[in-house]
Amino acid sequence: MEAVQSDSKNKTRGYLKNWIPYNIKRYWGFLAITVVAFVLPWIKINENHIFLLSFDQKKLNLMGVAFDMQELYLMPFLLMLLFIGIFATTVLGGRAWCGWGCPHTIFRVIYRDLIETKLLGLRKRISNKQKEPDMSLAKNKIKKVVAILLWSALALIAASNFMWYFVPPEDFFVYIQNPSEHMVLVGFVAGLALFLIADIIFIQENFCVYVCPYSRVQSVMYDEDTIMAVYDPIRGGEIYEGHGPERAKMFSKQKELLSVDPNAECTTCESCVTVCPTHIDIRKGLQLECINCLECVDACTKVMGALGKASLVVWSSEKEGARHEGKTRYLRPKVLAYFAVLAVVLFALFAMGSEKENMLLNVNKTTRLYKLLDNKGVENDYIFLYANTDSKDHEYYFEVVGNDKIAIERPKESFKIGAGQKKKSVVVLTTHDVLVSNDRKDTPLPITIKAYAVDDPENVMVTRKTVFVYPRIDLLKD
Question: Which residue segments constitute the domains of the chain, with CATH numbers given?
């Protein structure tokens, strides 16, 4: 008997010796994400942020490079990276994003597990998420109010942090000191904070189950090799019968289960059920509500480990973990295709981002086609809109390339534009030479404008195509 007990203890120690619960790993992951989210807006490279989409300054900062709103051709690539990355994660690891990276999940853990359970004791145990606090007790009502107030303060901080990616923090704290002059900013922060209060305190995991479209999208991406929390019915025994959402529960007690399947290892302790934040029973099989938080894996590992057995709920695929039909294929065609697309999009993003110009120029012809001058001269007017997208001031000028018969009448001298500033300039080009001998119609002649910084022409230079309209030759003869 002692030998059997000793062997059982050794097995228990073997299963639990180096075991680190997934929820501990998740907490460290949540902490890392939180630190990055709060620190990232403060980091600058060459006076530009790592990521900032500023509608106030009409700029995009990406990895320390400033892009003007006219250069927002990069935004579709960023959005594609985001969505394709989440889809690739879904194919490979199910709703791993939901359980390990989604802000909603992180906020719910902070509110429910940290504030309500650890700090205030409103909930008895983190391991029981099914039992709601008894709100008929006066002390629980007080604790609930305190919990709401604490989360409201954190919601305001989270909302402000979110806005730092659109209004840089150095401007945000200046603006917030004069709220009457920045009501749009105040409205966004307040509105987002109110949403977080309603979502985290009242909507709770119903947001994941009923509101979030991701749970519906993922259903078409799963296959038998997708990694998720999986119950092993071969070892544990079939707890439910039938298929689909109407599966009926057959056994709620171990003795009932053993009477049908003597080899079933499930203890029907319900630990995997009570710990689930979305209130599902993982033993039913694949369910859209599962967010891959793996809390059920931790619960079963602890129970079965105490019995000297491996967990019945594992992080694996249906093929390997539930049906025992072979190893999970991680590098399958679907996964490789997603990562190939991600590589292409990432390459395109860096390739197009590397072609960023340190100045922008829009050349627009005025409504007047041309003006006839004395001595058979012709004048064309343009509006040049310059934008200095560099981090320092520059002196600018331009020239007409490839046609020395067209001269610059105005402006005669270069002009200065500050860093990040714009300037509109009226440009007049003239010619006193016969460019085209056409007596039937006016002729638009293609010309190239080369604009540059006088102080750094090699690095700050752009070319733009436009036309010089030359009149019918008979108009000049008259």
Answer: 1-42+94-325 (no CATH), 359-477 (2.60.40.10)
